[in-house]
Design goal:
Elements: H1 9-36, H2 42-66, H3 73-93, H4 99-111, H5 116-127, H6 133-161, H7 166-181, H8 201-207, H9 209-235, H10 243-261, H11 270-290, H12 294-322, H13 328-354, H14 359-382, H15 399-412, E1 415-418, E2 421-424
Antiparallel strand pairs: 1-2
Helix pairs in contact: 1-2, 1-3, 1-5, 1-6, 1-7, 2-4, 2-13, 3-4, 3-7, 5-13, 6-10, 6-12, 9-11, 9-12, 9-13, 9-14, 10-12, 11-12, 11-14, 13-14
């Protein structure tokens, strides 16, 4: 199976729209810091605005994502992205506004488009054959990691070289263009609400909590490394200026990992692949905490980023297995919120630990906590129990997950026992990492 199966005018259009919707997200935290750094309170105010923006993302993804409906996805996405455009434009145009006004704009800019990542991913899945979904999601990850590699340099160059508010105005323009681009994409995706068997959306989404836990734990690892890296370099008596190249290398290796992920089929169940990748990332970051030179740090971070891509992709593919089609966009949005929460918690924990211990110890403590969360999530996925309770396997006997397993078994023509339930696998297929 190759990436040629997903190459089409529709997916290319989707990629352009996705860049417009996601580039502002990658630019925002650093852009608000540069926006107010010359004001009284400078960097502290910028950190607060960035935190408010992230909180807005978490709230918007969780609340708006659960209200996303397949048959009217386009207007919902357009309204969210349109309001987000206004929030970014207000930030860029009003750099001297009172802090409370800027905070409100940052919250709106982060929260209003919160359902866009999940909705756009669901649209992408509808544009490709079912057998090529893994490749499509791998390509999406490559695109996102590429955006995150480019955004910091673009923000820094524009803010320092032209004007502090220009990155946010550019973000507003990009997000506005993505709204127009939505009308070049399908209005939504096909999903029969009966696949939920009348079960409330919140209950369906709550059943997949182990996936959200491991997803949040995965990104919190790299978030911890990013936030502690400058202090770690000082501890190693390495120039803090190496932070940029090291983090860029991490993003590039993550993009490479996403690309490799979609090149072939990988053995093992999704939960097993995710666990292996997560433990690999943990090992790499534990090594980063004790490695003495910049070269070895670069190697450790690159390996961590490469494996991190596989971990996140397996989590997203697991959501497709355990949620009915009508709940997928909401599930992706909730995963986005969980990952954002994991990043925010990691940032708070990093600040607290750095005040009482060394950077290397802070990283090791974060790795230990993440391993515990990963094991909790993995064990919860396989724990047997009655329908409606316990782990993911518990839902297989009936309700939404059971109906999806039966539907895929009919379409796929083959079966494999996964997570203690009869789950579909196409003839000759294997789980991918």
């Amino acid at each position: 199976m190759s990436y040629r199966e997903i190459a089409s005018r529709g997916t290319l259009t989707w990629a352009v729209v996705a860049v417009g919707a996601r580039m502002p997200v990658a630019m925002a935290p650093l852009a608000v810091v540069f926006l107010v750094r010359e004001r009284e309170g400078g960097y502290a105010l910028g950190a607060i605005l960035a935190a408010v923006y992230v909180i807005g993302e978490i709230v918007g993804a969780a609340l708006l994502g659960m209200r996303m409906r397949p048959e009217r996805a386009r207007p919902q996405l357009a309204v969210g992205l349109g309001v987000g455009t206004a929030g970014f434009a207000a930030l860029g145009a009003l750099p001297d506004a009172p802090a409370v006004v800027l905070a409100a704009c940052a919250f709106v800019a982060g929260g209003a488009p919160g359902a866009a990542p999940g909705g756009l991913r669901a649209i992408l899945n509808s544009l490709v054959p079912e057998r090529a979904v893994a490749q499509a999601m791998s390509a999406e990850s490559v695109l996102v990691f590429g955006i995150w590699a480019i955004a910091p340099a673009a923000v820094t160059g524009l803010a320092l070289g032209v004007a502090p508010g220009l990155p946010l105005l550019l973000a507003a323009a990009l997000m506005g263009l993505s709204v127009a681009g939505l009308w070049l994409l399908p209005a939504g995706w096909k999903a029969d609400e009966s696949d939920r068997d009348g079960e409330p959306m919140l209950r369906i989404l709550a059943r997949a909590w182990p996936v959200y836990v491991t997803g949040a734990a995965g990104l919190s690892l790299l978030a911890l490394a990013e936030l502690v890296l400058p202090a770690l370099l000082e501890q190693r008596e390495i120039s803090v200026g190496m932070s940029g190249p090291l983090l860029a290398g991490l993003a590039v290796s993550s993009a490479a990992g996403s690309f490799v992920y979609g090149l072939r089929r990988w053995p093992g169940r999704l939960r097993t692949q995710s666990l292996v990748c997560m433990l690999g990332v943990s090992g790499c970051l534990a090594a980063v905490a004790v490695l003495p030179t910049a070269a070895w740090l670069a190697v450790g971070l690159a390996c961590a980023g490469f494996l991190q891509a596989g971990s996140m992709l397996t989590r997203n593919l697991t959501l497709r297995e355990v949620l009915p089609p009508s709940a997928l966009a909401a599930g992706y949005s909730l995963m986005y919120a969980a990952v954002g929460a994991g990043y925010a918690v990691s940032g708070s924990m990093a600040g607290a630990l750095l005040s009482v211990t060394t950077p290397s110890t802070a990283i090791l403590a974060g790795v230990a906590l993440t391993v515990v969360l990963t094991l909790v999530g993995t064990l919860a996925e396989v724990r047997p129990g009655p329908v409606g309770g316990g782990g993911l396997a518990a839902a297989s006997g009936g309700g939404a997950v059971g109906s999806v397993a039966a539907k895929v078994a009919v379409e796929g023509g083959g079966e494999g026992e996964v997570d203690g339930v009869v789950e579909a696998e196409r003839p000759g297929s294997e789980r991918r990492c």
